[in-house]
Amino acid sequence: xxxxxxxxxLEIAPYHRSEPDAREYVRQLAEKLGVLxxxxxxxxxxxxxxxxSGKPIxxxxxxxxxxxxxxxxxxxxxxLIDNSDRLMPPPIxxxxxxxxxxxxxxxxxxxxxSIDGDGILEPAVGALADDVLFYREQAVTDSAEHRLALIAxxxxxxxxxxxxxxxxxxxxxxxxxxxxxxxxAASAHFITIQNPAPFEDRxxxxxxxxxxxxxxxxxxxxWSDLSKLRTQRNRYVHPAEPIYSLGIDEIVNVLNQCRxxxxxxxxxxxxxxxxxxxxxxxQKVKTAPIIKKTT
Length: 295
Known about the structure:
It is a single chain. This protein has helices at residues 19-32, 38-43, 61-71, 75-83, 124-143, 148-180, 188-194, 199-209, 214-217, 221-237, 248-256, 258-272, 280-286; strands at residues 10-12, 47-50, 57-60, 94-96, 103-108, 111-116, 119-121, 291-293. It is mainly alpha-helical. It has 3 domains: 1-85, no CATH class; 93-122, no CATH class; 123-295. The protein has a two-stranded antiparallel sheet with strand order 1-8. A two-stranded antiparallel sheet has the order 2-3. Strands 4-7 form a two-stranded antiparallel sheet. The longest helix is centred in the middle third of the chain and has 33 residues, at 148-180. It is globular, with a radius of gyration of 21 Å.
């Protein structure tokens, strides 16, 4: 049989969210942004005007719901929520490809990054969240032609960026906290988070920084799934055996564990810190389309 005529090994759902879930998420953001009578305006297909520090933004609620289904987030409203975050507003992503001597810079608090010539500046949490989604989709794409070595490569990279995203959050958040409240940097828990301590110690320290028992987090599905992702990542990062085995049956569940293990963990981390969990990089991963093995 021709390889291209085979059925794909994996399939991915076309949507991040169900219709009711997308409507509810958009309603939550609309409420945060001061939109009144959301249900009525959605039913009547009325655009809403949202004031900003600059020019007001006109938003079509039905379009926002449709996009929230497809990507997990409504683009116009989500951008406003992200940019208004009181701890970690995203730095502007910049890219240049001019084959010249152009220089671009981006400054966040006391830190400035620059590149000369072709390159890109982007927030790590956003880039890694996109990577999580990309490598999941890549595994599904490669499964269409039964390209097992490429499926394994995408899967391994997916595992790595899942853990890296949690690390990046802790690094970005502690940088922002130190900028806004230098006194917090003297806390022993803060120092543990910033130092190259074992991953579990840093997670525990984040919980304790906010007076939250780590044991409570360890009872959640988020911690359970995050631990499974780390275990699978460590099988090839710190191998104890000379051969790395990987079966399609075993990777399906793991490819879906980013939803609670990463998205749910970051949502939890922000909630215990009294921060809004409705940021794009969290919600896109938390609602990652379900992957299934084909029958």
